[in-house]
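Researcher: Structure for this, please.
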Amino acid sequence: MLDRADMTNRLTEIVRQVMPASPSSAKLAKDADLYQAGLTSMAMVKLMLAVEVEFDISIPDVDLHPDNFRSVEAVEALVARLR
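Model: Predicted structure, token format:
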């Protein structure tokens, strides 16, 4: 089973992959606002799809809310809840 630190590291890497042009992604804090760091609506969709694949989950429509993708911490909580 994946521990919390591993999940955080994997999520941070996924965020870096969907936001490669963002200079602030290099030192992304767990609670950093991803939208302020450059997450666009298109990148949010890519993030959602990558998270579903990486953690073998399906994110229900009701959870496709920007607040669930606002930070690595928020995505981590979503994944933990859906696993």
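Researcher: Any notable elements?
Model: The chain has a mean pLDDT of 89. Helices lie at 4-18, 41-55, 72-82.
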